Amino acid sequence: MKVLHVEAGRHLYGGAKQVLYILQGLAARGVTNVLACPSGAHIAAEARALAEVVEMPMGGDADLGLVLRLKQTIHTHRPDIVHIHSRRGADLWGGIAAKLAGVPCVLSRRVDNPEARWAVALKYRLFEHVITISEGIRQVLLAEGLAPEKVSCVRSAVDPAPYLHEVDKAAFRADLGFAADTPIAGMVAQLIPRKGHRHLLAALPAVLAEHPRLQVLIYGRGPLEAELRQAVADLGFAGHVTLMGFVDDLPAQLGGLDLLVHPADMEGLGVSLLQASAARVPIIASRAGGMPEAVVDGENGVLIEVGNVTALTAAMKRLLGDAALRARMGEAGRARVLSEFSVDAMCEGNLAIYHKVLAR
Question: Where is the Glycosyl transferase family domain positioned along the sequence (predicted)?
Answer without folding.
Answer: 169-335
